[in-house]
Each structure stands twice: as structure tokens, then as C-alpha cells.
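FORM 7B: Structural annotation worksheet

SECTION A. Query
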Amino acid sequence: MLFSETLNEFSNQKAWLTLGNFDGYHLGHQALVEKLVEAAHADEALAGLITFWPHPKLVLNGETGPFYLSLEHEKKALLNQSKLDFVVQFPFTKEFAGQSANEFIAKLTKHIDIKSFVTGKDLTIGKNREGTIQSLKTLFESLEIKHITIPSLILEETVVSSQAVRNVLAKGDVALAKEFLGRNYAIDGIVTQGKQVGSKFGFPTANLSFDRLKYLPKIGVYATWAVVNHQHYAGVTNIGLRPTFGNALTPSIETLLLDFDGNIYGEQLKVFFVKRIRDEKKFEGVQSLKDQIMHDKDQARRLLENE
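SECTION B. Predicted structure
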């Protein structure tokens, strides 16, 4: 798959396109892309995806807190697993957002021989979101471009969307998030040295330095899989404010790797969330904390054995 931030490489290429943010690349996104690729290749055309970075909500609405289901490197990796021929990711700025839908589509058609657009039914583009599905259909008809809309995917009586994934993560339901995404929700980062409180109690944890724009599951304790140095480990992960040792201002992510003994400071660690075990809570003493950790480890093992 060819990845680009400009249209220069695609001069006069015959292609079918889709466009959108594709944050999280959930099963609804995947179903749309599969249909696009199948139809494009049947037409002996390229299958291309047009997307944007940063997400428009961060640029236009001033979002500053945890937001992304997939950071830029994760989004690229997910799209790279598809059978798309190319992805164009435009840098999204306020100036870029000032284009009308007609101007933006004209820019695409100037470079690419577009045969069809395949989109979801709720797509809006252009300045002030003026490019609705209905107005786009009219525009595409005038340009003799076919427009195919794909119905939303519904699972568990819920329309699968990026916001739906955020909603279930906010409840800590990482198992349902997996159903929507088609994979376990994951967060990666670098292992850094924390306060080493766990080590003093015999339970050394990996403290994860992660991008603060990444959306976090609800504060609590989770059964997780973790990957470090290409090795997989069962784990118990706490997302929280560490109330037993004085509340922190921002959540930390700490993972106790089961059946592991080693130094991984400075290494890349990726944590996959499987099942929520319990709320984070404040313990009155060291022994009660140690007893709870042993119980969490046993529960995580049972949950992960069935995964």
C-alpha cells in the first residue's frame, strides 16, 4: 500500500475512493473498505482512501483531552493491513477546513480519474459541514461519478462508530469494544521508571509512558495481554490515580507481567485490554493490597485462559 500526504503520485490514475477520519478503524470501517476494494479491483481500478490528520475535532473544536482510538502510527498500521492500493492523508488545518465540499472534490478529480466514491451514509465534508450525503450525490452525478453508500454496521443493537467505541470504553467494557473493533483495544508506549512502590511489595510493575491524546478505558484493573521485545505475556493492568499512595492528577497505566522477571526500562510495551476485573480502590494497609493483587493475578489468569 502506498501512503502519501499529497495527490501528486496519482495523476490520472483510475480509482475508486472512500474518505473519512477512520479513527479506530472499527468493523464498520473495515466492512466499507472491503466492499470498496472488491468493487474497485473488479473494475480494474485502484482502491484508495482519503483521510486527515490531526482529527478535525482537535483542530476545530479545541479537543485537548484523551480522544484518539488510534494514534497516527496505529492508524497507518491498521490501514496497511487492508488490501487498499493507496492512502492519502491530508494534513488538517483551519485553512484546509475552509475549503467548500465542491473545492475539495475538484482538487481530487484534478489529480485522480475517480470512477466511484464508496462512503458511509452519514458522511459530511467541507466548510461548515456543508457537503452532506444528499448534496454530494448531486455533485457526483454532475461529475458522472458513481456514489455508493454503505449501511451502518449494527452490533448488540448499537450502530458501530468511533464514538460508540469510546462510549463502551468509558464504561470499562473492553470486551464489547473488542466486538466493535474486531480486535482487543490496545495502548502502547515506553516503559519508564515509576516510584517502584510495587517492587517494594514484591510485585514490580511496568509503568507506561503513553500519548495523552490516546483514549483510555475507564479507571480500574484489567486482565491484559502485553507484548515487549516480540514476547507475549499475560498481565494485570491498572489504569488509575493510585489512591492508596496519594491521588495523582492524571491517570497512570501500570502493568504487572505474569511469569516475567527482567528489566524492560526504555522498551516499547503494548498492552491489549481483555476484561475489566474491578474498580480501582484505596487500601488501608500493605497486606490488604498484596492480598488483592494475588487475587487479581488469579482472576486474570482464568480470564486469559479462556481468551
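SECTION C. Observations
The two ends are 32 Å apart (CA to CA). Residues 286-305 form the longest helix (20 residues).

SECTION D. Sign-off
Analyst initials: ____
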